[in-house]
Amino acid sequence: MNVNDKTLLKVPGLNPEAIRDFFHKAVPLRTIVVMCPDPRATSIPEAIAKEFGQTWPGEVVHDDKGAAVGSTTNILLNVTTGARAVDALRSITSLNYLIGVENVVLVQHTFCGTTGWTPDVLIETYKREFGADISRQHVLEDISILDFEQTLRYDAALIRNSPGTPKTINIFGYIFDIDTKELSKVLEDRGIPIRSAASLSGQAA
């Protein structure tokens, strides 16, 4: 079988509306955790699940034919270097369309590699070692972490102001200590209740 035959739109009787409806009803994924790929930070999902009273990692759900059709976890991971929001925006948009997201949780961790350089150092290193000018490829504020609280607030604002982020979504920012495994909440930006958001949407139309 061609691997491209194993796509949802190739399943007889399925269309985008039916697929979305299935995921909204059958999959209890509600919280996106944006975290770093650093192996020292792999316990972040468990810590967030405990903080929010949610399930992680959960179990894969199979149908009567043995096909994997879902999971019992409430948490989705979006892994980006430094847990930076700029790299997570597309995922937030796509996942909200597919499942309906309630929370986006940014979790940066102590002694992260991205706290080890300034934007200028990274840009100059690329020029010197690779002969490439990346100065226009990235916004300077997205390149490194120099202050955790400032960076989390910048990233939370980036998510909040993105057209792909519904006004109903709650945004949180945490710092995870890789030595103590403790979370420290930096920010909590609650979304607008669904009814109020619908009213605003109607006014905009």
TrEMBL record:
Taxonomic superkingdom: Bacteria
Cofactor(s) annotated in UniProt: Zn(2+)
Keywords: Metal-binding, Zinc
Gene3D superfamilies per UniProt: Carbonic anhydrase
Listed GO MF terms: carbonate dehydratase activity; zinc ion binding
Family: Belongs to the beta-class carbonic anhydrase family.
Protein's recorded name: Carbonic anhydrase
Naturally occurring in which organism (per UniProt): Acidisarcina polymorpha
